[in-house]
Hints:
The chain has helices at 3-16, 22-29, 33-45, 73-89, 92-107, 111-121, 139-149, 218-224, 277-285, 298-315, 317-324, and strands at 50-53, 57-60, 151-157, 166-178, 181-188, 193-198, 202-211, 235-242, 258-263, 267-274, 292-296. It is of the alpha+beta class and 325 residues long. A 5-stranded antiparallel beta sheet has the order 6-5-4-3-7. The chain has a 4-stranded antiparallel beta sheet with strand order 9-10-8-11, with helices on one face. The protein has a two-stranded antiparallel sheet with strand order 1-2.
Amino acid sequence: MNRFDRITAILIQLQSKKVVKAQDLADRFGISLRTVYRDIRSLEEAGIPLYGEAGVGYSLVEGYRLPPVMFTPDEAVAFITAGKLMEKFTDSGVQGNFASALYKVKAVLRSTEKDLVDSLENQIDVLTYHKNIPQGSTALDTLLKAIAEKKAVSMTYKAFGKENENERTAEPIGVFHENGYWYTIAWCHLRNEYRQFRIDRIVKIQLTTTAQQSHVSLKEYQQLYPKSWEQYPYEKVVLRIKKNTVPYLNERRHFYGFTEEKDLGDAVEMTFFTQWAEEGLLRWYLMFADSAEIISPDWLKTSAASLLGRIIEKNNFNVVAKNQQ
């Protein structure tokens, strides 16, 4: 990046945040602090109203705004790609907000970039095996607003395996996406502790006017409450799978708690840690059971035999097999 482009990018970054640290600018552009200070002086000499405080950072004087920004073709393509992901992995509220922002981006594109964007929109698609947030839901959007405004939410939640819904008041501190689902970490008023909620299980949600208490950030929470096998009732499962079958499992194994694998020559030994060994992983295992075996735990072997027995009995496979003979 030449110096002119870098200074322009610094100005854009200064407008994107209330305070920007010199070290953050140095890290982003791969330059020294001395170069950062020189670039900042150049902006000041150009008449940009900057305010700097030692140990805090730089900020633009309140009220100053840049004219519309021009985007490069690569940046425009990145926006379109992000939009396709938004359509499949967020709720209707976030999708609507992003679509509105994208119209504004398109408005400042040059005609050549607009043609590029139009031609690519129908050439990019994101295929998913399921919709991770129910159609019409605005739960994710509401949670993001609650986090930004530091407000509590009132929600109706249906936990996994439970028939009844229950009412919760919670103070969300962050959201994350894992294994095909969105989750939020929130301080639950009912349990009086931090709890994890899967967002697609939120039946109804409403932003309240109740201010949140003081909480740790999501990153701090993840450091203070790390996932561990002792903290959660996870089961260790070891499977031995023929090597020619392994390529067909790589994309799905992480959904069942895959942690490591060991090459045994003509086979691969995979280790999983899962809370749903019997109801989840075992049923997935049956899809390729003719090319694999359960090494441990022993009780899962018994469960597999019992499940297969029920399948044979229910479907009269013994009768079919005799007729075929």
